[in-house]
UniProtKB/TrEMBL annotation:
Domain N-acetyltransferase: 1-69
Record's protein name: N-acetyltransferase domain-containing protein
Pfam families: Acetyltransf_1
MF GO annotations: acyltransferase activity, transferring groups other than amino-acyl groups
Organism annotation: Planococcus donghaensis MPA1U2
Length: 69
């Protein structure tokens, strides 16, 4: 997931991920899994702020998961 630079800091990513979490939960999913580049610090912090837990760092990417229960 990414937001075009000119539209960042407007809450779009927050709304997108919140909508994804609601939809996934309604569909019966119990967990979301994602990854981002290790040098994209703003994305890492964004996911951490939303209670995504890093479970793997492979040197290039950080992998996160979040329980929907």
């Amino acid at each position: 997931m990414s937001v075009i630079k000119n539209y960042r800091r407007a809450g779009l990513a927050k709304r997108m991920i919140a909508s994804l979490e609601i939809w996934a939960k309604e569909q019966g999913y119990r967990q979301l899994v994602l990854e981002t580049n290790n040098d994209w610090y703003s994305a890492i912090n964004f996911y951490k702020d939303r209670q995504y837990q890093r479970y793997l760092n492979d040197g290039m990417c950080s992998h996160f998961k979040k329980s929907l229960s």
